[in-house]
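Dear colleague,

Thank you for sharing your sequence with our group. We've completed the structure prediction you requested, and as agreed, I am returning the results in plain text so they can be pasted directly into your records. Please verify that the sequence below matches your submission; if there's any discrepancy, let me know and we will rerun it promptly.
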Amino acid sequence: MKPENIESIVIEYLKTENAQYALMLNGAWGTGKTFFWKDSLSPLVERQKFKSIYISLNGIKTIKTLQRQLFIKLIPYLDKGQSKTLKTARKLIGNTIGSLSKAIIKVDPSDLFQGIGIDSFNFSKKFICFDDLERCQIPIKEILGFINGLVEHKNLKCLILADEDKILNRDKKRKKHYYNTKEKIIGRTVNYNPDIENILPKLYVKYEKEAAFFTFIKDNQNFIRRIFDDQKEANIRTISFFIDSFRVIYKHVNIFDKELKKELLFLTAIISIEYKNGSLKSNESQDFKNLGNNSFLWYQIERLDQFKIKAVDKKEAPKKKKSYAETFCLKYLNNRLDNYHFYESVYTYILSGYLDEDKLINELEKRRPKTPTKEDEAFANLMGYNFRKFTNEKFISYTKDVLEFLEKGAYSIYNYEQLSIFYHFLVEKGLIKYTHDDIEEKLFTGIKIAFERKEIDHRFYDNLIHTRLNNPIAQPIRNKIVEFHNVLNIESVNLDSNQLIEVLAFEDYGKLHALFKDKKFNKEFIAYLDGNKLFSALKRSSNQYLTLFTNEMRERYNHNNITQFYPNDYSCLNTLLKSVQRHLKVNEPHILRKFLWEELKTVLTDTCSRLKKEES
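Please find the predicted structure tokens below.
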């Protein structure tokens, strides 16, 4: 129910004379029922000339304890016509128990007034909010009976805040009994479903004095709202935790670009959600769970549709549990990858409470955009297709400059398709005095020079080849981009493969583990490795290192849909498997060594079988 509707119900209740029933506000833990009471309903009650009183039932075990708390809360609201004894009590209590000396605090205030009970108070024009009914340790029948006595016989106006699901889950057998008891006292139950759009501005208010931070979160309030809306996350405690955490981070990053701060905001929000819902634990603050592997995350998004299991006639093999990074990616980053960058310092801070300021600054410095070169500036201005707004002089200057830069190989090989389409368009429209052949010659001259820089970008390439080429005139340059990328990719893969062989030769487990962790979701790490060379390196390794390698291989392939991650690994692994099988038949007499090879064989057999089955 909307907050304004709840407020109208409360107003109507306040206007009802001798109501003899209470209201209940029902909602899940953390949805902000208490906040709603203090921020909206309590002021509303006061405006209606009622005195509002708040009492939490959390942990209260006896009616006597509750009476004592209620007694203390009522002291400040004594009326003129009440007894001299109670007036004396008011003077002794002062501004509630918080203002008493240490000596008096040790005394139970109700002991000062033996013989005086809460019946001595006038409850008219009082409105009491009893919070946390589900956390009260007094039996439900007893606590509701006590409240009913005040409502029915003392004309008290009362609101009870509760999470009924928690009450019923605590004792399902007494569900009917609960509703029977509730029916006698609760006149109306309203369900509280907070509206994030309305709640967020109220949470921001307390930061008004911190001008820069307040302005930033206000400017990005729609972005923040969408993050929590996407996750259907309405827990006010989680959202408040996020804002407080980001406030601390923001103090150190105000000098940085707003887009970097937006990255920090997004990461802080989603890690806060994971932490507060228990998916991440404090003792995992240094375990980054592969969340910084952007190549894996990009690959996940590109293959999103392929993760959906299609129905088949035959019985499917049981699914393996997804990795945390896989689950995280599918949950948060679909259509959000451009907002995402993983900052280790932020992750550690959310989970542990310790912010390494120097590390955060260093991470941000690495993310700072480089100062654009003349060729970058010319490219950005011209390729934005805003040339129609240029003056004649600017148009001539930009088209001339970019053409010179592209011929000199100043741009990435992946930019040359866009350049091809654009300059052929200019030729077609008669906007530049070149032929299509002239443009092709300059493009191919430039891309060959750019290729020599050996700059590879898997993300740009994946995006390029998954985009349909609508203009066939750029097909030759796209073919050249694919050719050059594959050459660079093989060189990169060979380097990685050689790195694995070298690490195996030196038997450095730390390096082996780090290499497998870094390349865990790299689809080419194993794909182009020579299985026979890998076997030769393993054959020279110690028992301990052979065991460690087997464990790393088991971990690499221990998740769903491995053909989506490693589509070309089968050849290398099958060659390695055959080498191990041959070796076991004739060359391994030692019982322990044979056992270790058998373990590796089992992992390889299972992995090859799954790769072959999923492929078919």
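Summary note from our side: Confidence is low (pLDDT under 50) at residues 95-107, 305-315.

Kind regards,
the structure core
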